[in-house]
Amino acid sequence: MSEYILEAVDVIKHYKQYDQVVYACNRASLKVKDGEFVAIVGSSGSGKSTFLHICAGLMRPNDGKVSIRGTDIAKLKPDALARFRGNHIGIVFQNHNLIPQLTALENILVPTVMCAREDHTYEEHLKKLVAALDLENRLHHLPSELSGGQQQRVALARALINRPQILFADEPTGNLDRKNSEEVLRLFTETKNLLGQTLVVVTHDMTVADCADRVLEMRDGVLYEL
Ligand SMILES: Nc1ncnc2c1ncn2[C@@H]1O[C@H](COP(=O)(O)OP(=O)(O)OP(=O)(O)O)[C@@H](O)[C@H]1O
Ligand SMILES: [Mg+2]
Predict the structure, then answer these.
(1) What is the SS3 assignment for 177?
(2) CB under 8 Å to 180, separation ≥6 — which residues?
(3) Percent of the chain at pLDDT above 90?
(4) 192: domain CATH number?
(5) What are phi and psi for residue 132, nearest 5 degrees?
(6) Considering its fold, how many domains does the chain have in total?
(7) Which domain holds residue 35?
(8) pLDDT per residue over 143-197, tens digit each?
(9) Count of C-beta atoms within a 10 Å radius of residue 12
């Protein structure tokens, strides 16, 4: 078994823009060890979100390999990939993507309904997450009734509820004020230190990057170790 939880090797993704081909990822590679906190920085348009979405199995690369715990996710059929994602991967999007018609609690529980895991009962974990994220009094509110920071904390709880092997986050503090950013950052470091959570975070926020074990910079679709 590989010592890496994530192995992305020579990932290529290109988009057609009119008569031009844009290489969003141009042989980007990243290997992440269990329990590591990796931050990816880089200028706008350098390919960070594309790379993160490919590693999280939300998008398929044109070429290259992405394996999580030894499973080559690019080779999984759509059903198997969706199951694998639900069981092993947590994702926090920049705009949190909560379902507007569902309460905070219902949003948090979506992964447990979509991917029921026999080996995991979530009630205890839910209590801990809700307490750590200070959401006790907000569980029955709709996303539109929550502040931006609260919505982001709900999104984080949803990403962590199934105890993912790896958590990907795209600009998780991008829309937050300093206090809420600090809260989210505290949660990241706590899940890493207490639960050994593996984290891959795209960020412009240097206070987030400063907390990471390793920082890489994406430039023109290639990742460079800083
Ligand atoms: N669906 C798409 N169709 C065409 N081009 C795309 C698409 N998505 C992204 N691109 C292009 O791919 C490149 C990388 O985009 P990406 O969103 O990965 O950058 P980013 O580093 O996340 O930028 P930001 O920091 O602004 O979020 C950009 O040139 C972008 O225009
Ligand atoms: Mg982006």
Answers:
(1) coil
(2) 147, 148, 149, 152, 153, 173
(3) 64
(4) 3.40.50.300
(5) -65, -35
(6) 1
(7) 4-225
(8) 999 988 889 889 999 999 988 999 999 998 887 888 888 888 888 898 888 888 9
(9) 16
State whether the beta carbon of 17 lies less than 6 angstroms from ligand 1: yes
All residues at 6 or more sequence positions from 9 whose CB lies less than 8 Å from its CB, including other chains:
29, 64, 65, 66
pLDDT tier at 11 (50, 70, 90 boundaries)?
Answer: very high
Asked whether 48 lines ligand 1 (CB < 6 A), one says yes
Residues 6+ apart with CB under 8 A from 31: 4, 6, 7, 8
Closest Cα to atom 25 of ligand 1: 44
User: Sign of torsion, CA 55 57 59 63?
Assistant: positive
Ligand 1: centre distance to CA 66 (Å): 19
Tell me if the pTM is above 0.90: yes
Secondary structure of residue 162 in the 3-state scheme: coil
